[in-house]
Amino acid sequence: MSIYMKTLRSTLFFCLLSVLWGGNLSAQRGVRIAYLDMDLILAELSEYQKASRLLDERILKWKEEIELKKLQAKQLREQLGAEKVLLTPELIKDREIEIQEFEREIVQMQERRFGPNGDLIKQRVQLIQPIQDQVMGLVQKIATDKKYDFVFDRSSSPNMLFSSKNYDISKLIIQQLQRQEKLKKRKEKIEAVKSKLNR
The whole model's pTM is what? Predict the structure, then answer.
């Protein structure tokens, strides 16, 4: 057997040994699991509440716009029904085409506002995604610091039938988010005072 083959065998043996030894250590440690309630966390954040209210206001406005258009389409149909006896068949057909086009615009407006690629999805991403990203960053930091192997979201996981409070890290995340929010407000106040002094 050549020196190269002996070196290769011994290297492979030590690699295998270190993998088994490392696996044995992690097996002795056991799997560490934590969970959180994302709904509870987001409900505690004033930034999230503001973003949700703003989004709800926009949704209400869009729904009102669509309902107004539907009411106008209904009035156009009723008006055509009342005037049909006075109109020629060509005019009736032209008016029906106009009404159908108007109704098609309403459907397009609904799709533009509430469709899978609509304004609702875009606004939700724009307003709420940064907050969720901030929470996820904290979750990852806490999971790394506390050496958790898995972190589950209780609010979106219907499979979690039981969970002990010992493993709930929701309050820890809320505390850190509130701390960040206080620091941000303090910095804003300091900046406001500095700008007043510089005037």
Answer: 0.59
